[in-house]
Structure formats: C-alpha cells, structure tokens
Amino acid sequence: MSKGGKRPGAGRPKGSTNRKADKIRDFYQLLINKNLKQLQEDLDTLKPKERLEVIISLSKFVVPMMKAVEMSGRIDSPKIDMSKWK
C-alpha cells in the first residue's frame, strides 16, 4: 500500500452538494418563509434608501454574483473618409 496521495473514489463526487450546507440552506429558507410577513413589515418601516440597501444586501444570497470580465485587445474598424460627405 502506497502512502500519501489521492485514493481513487475517495471523497465527495465532483458536482455533488455538501449535506451540511444543504441542511443549513433548507433551514434558512424555512426561517425566511415563516417570517415573510414580519420581514415585509420591517422593510416598510425603513426609509426608501435604507430599504433599497437592505434589499440589495439580501439579493446576493438569491441572485448569483456575476464576475467582472476584463477584456484586452484591439478592435479594428474600417476608416471612413468624411470629406466625401458634403
């Protein structure tokens, strides 16, 4: 038997979810669902700017974050002779 390194088939299969994380996510969703009315009442007591800040901060748990994309390179466009447009 060799020491160290990966064992074939060991660990969680690629793409499978973590059971603890699933349980926590399910509990959190249940907690939110049971308190929707209170959450709405709390939001209604806030000023519009505060309400928007809370909604935006909560949205990152629902809407996936998009990564910033950096582009490099050059776009070549045809040159237009404007002197003929008289």
Give a description of the structure:
It is a single chain. The protein has a domain at 18-62. It has 86 residues and is mostly helical. The chain is flat. The model has no long low-confidence stretch (mean pLDDT 83). It contains three helices and no strands. It starts with 18 loop residues before the first helix and ends in a 27-residue tail after the last helix.
Features of the shown structure:
43% helix, mainly alpha
Element layout with pairings:
Elements: H1 19-34, H2 36-44, H3 48-59
Estimate the mean pLDDT confidence.
Answer: 83
Task: Determine the structural class based on helices, strands and strand pairing.
Answer: mainly alpha
The amount of beta strand, in percent, is under 5%
Question: Percent range for helical residues?
Answer: 40-55%
Low-pLDDT windows of residues:
none
Q: Quickly count the helices.
A: 3
